[in-house]
Amino acid sequence: MGWSDEDVQGICEMAKDPLLMANQGFLVLAEPAHEGQLIGVLSLTRIPGQAHEAGIGLWLAADARYRGFGSEAIRLASELCWQSGIHLITLGTTSSNTAMQRCYLAAGADLFDTGENELPDGRVVEACWYRIQNPRETPQNEAT
């Protein structure tokens, strides 16, 4: 939530080294039909103090929006999470970003909270928070 164009440019530079990106929790998306064209960046971050939870952040280039790339990237990242022992993924966006909210819902997320959120640059925005539960986990499994 709240990535600037400068943030994305920095991520593009780091993307030249996929190992560095993986170690930082980023997955770089490129459309096969347009080799070398960045269509989006997905960040996957473990939640501190929560061994089985992760957060996903997503940015898509303007010409990659409304084409299903975002929800597909979230589904792929979710599968990696489930294979890594993650049980719960949290995603957030601004309440005005209805396109990203639809993307999260299409990826299987459920809205669980709304409220004010302070961005890294100090701005305060109204935010919507979504979660995706590992479908292979049952409440009994989560208690153990």
UniProtKB/TrEMBL annotation:
SUPFAM superfamilies: Acyl-CoA N-acyltransferases (Nat) (SSF55729)
One Pfam family hit: Acetyltransf_1
InterPro entries from the UniProt entry: Acyl_CoA_acyltransferase, GNAT_dom
GO MF annotation list: acyltransferase activity, transferring groups other than amino-acyl groups
Cross-referenced Gene3D superfamilies: 3.40.630.30
Ranges where the N-acetyltransferase domain occurs: 1-135
UniProt signal peptide: none
Name of the protein in its database record: Unannotated protein
